[in-house]
Amino acid sequence: MKAKNKPVGIKHNVHKKKREKRIGLAVIVAILIAIVLISGFLINSMLNQPSTSQPVNSTAEPKAAIVDQLSLTCPNQTFIETATNILKQAGYTVDYYSGEKVTVEFYRNLPTRNYALIILRVHSTAAALEGEEFVETGVSFFTSESYSQFKYVWEQLTDQLAIASYTMPEPPYYFAIFPKFVTSSMKGKFQNSTIIMMGCEGLNNTKMAEAFIQKGAKAYISWSQSVSADHTDIATANLLQHMLIQKQTIEQAVENTMKEIGPDPTDNSFLLYYPTEVGKETIEDAS
C-alpha cells in the first residue's frame, strides 16, 4: 500500500513515529516541569478527589450515546435521526456528540458517563505508517483534535496515542487512540456496555475489542475490513432494529443484518462481534 493512495471508504491511516523523532527536546522539558508540579499535588489529589464512578440505577431508563466524529467529513442526518428514533422506541435516553466534541479528553471520560450502549460513528484503521511502510497495529480511533507533539506527552511516549491523517503522510494531522489508551487512560469502568464500532477494521483484530472488554464492556460489534460510510450507516440502522426492537440475540441480529444488507461491496467487509460467547445473549442480557 503506497502512502499517498486515496483512502477507501472510511478507512484512513495513522503514523506511529519513533519516539526520538516525534517528541524532541521540548518533551523532556515538559516532563521535568510536570514531575515538579505533580510531586506536590499527588498526595493531596489522592486523598481528597471524590470518586468519579457512579452506581448504576437499574430502575432508570438505559442511556445510549451516538458519537458522530464522521459528522465533520461524512455527515448523515438521516442515519442519526433513524438511530435515535430506534433507541428511543426501545426505551433509551439518547445523547448525541458531534464531531468537534470527539477529543482525547472525550474518550478519556467516556466510561464515566454510564452508557449501556455506545455507537461509535468514527474513522478508524488497523494500520499505521512506520517510516515508509504501513504495518498492522491494534485498531485506532480518530479524534477531531489537532495533533501536537507538546500535548498528552506521556500518552504519546507510552504508545497510547497516534498521529492520524485522512491522507497520510500528508496533513492535517489529528490524535488517534490505541487500545492501550482504553485500558490505561480511560477513567472509570464501562457498566457492561455494548459497543457498536461503525468504522473500518474495528474487528480486523481483537486488540481494541479486548481493551473495551477489559475496561468493563460486555460486547463489541464492528467490521472485519474497510467499510464505506453509506454502507455502515444502513447496516447499523438495520442491526439496531433487530437488536432493540425485535429483541434478537447479538448473533441473530448480526447474521440477519449481513443476510439483508450484505458485506461492504468494495472491500467485502462483514460484521463480527466479540467475545463469541456474548452472541447468545440479547442486548438486554448483555447489559
Tally the beta strands: 11
The CATH topology is what? Rossmann fold
Q: What does the radius of gyration come to?
A: 19 Å
Query: Any idea of the CATH class?
Result: Alpha Beta
Please identify, by name, the CATH architecture: 3-Layer(aba) Sandwich
As residue ranges, the low-confidence spans are 1-8, 40-58
Overall shape: it is globular
Helical region count? Answer: 10
Helix/strand layout:
Layout: E1 13-15, H1 19-22, H2 25-48, E2 63-68, H3 77-89, E3 93-98, H4 104-109, E4 117-121, E5 124-130, E6 133-146, H5 153-157, E7 161-165, E8 174-177, H6 179-185, E9 194-197, H7 207-214, E10 219-223, H8 229-245, H9 250-260, E11 271-274, H10 283-286
Parallel strand pairs: 1-5, 2-3, 2-4, 4-9, 9-10
Antiparallel strand pairs: 1-7, 5-6, 6-8, 7-8, 10-11
Helix pairs in contact: 3-8, 6-7, 8-9
What would you note in describing this structure?
With 287 residues, this protein is an alpha/beta fold. It has one domain: Rossmann fold, CATH 3.40.50.1460. The protein has helices spanning 19-22, 25-48, 77-89, 104-109, 153-157, 179-185, 207-214, 229-245, 250-260, 283-286, and strands at 13-15, 63-68, 93-98, 117-121, 124-130, 133-146, 161-165, 174-177, 194-197, 219-223, 271-274. Strands 3-2-4-9-10-11 form a six-stranded mixed β-sheet, with helices on both faces. Strands 1-5-6-8-7 form a five-stranded mixed barrel. The longest helix is centred in the first third of the chain and has 24 residues, at 25-48. The relative contact order is 0.17.
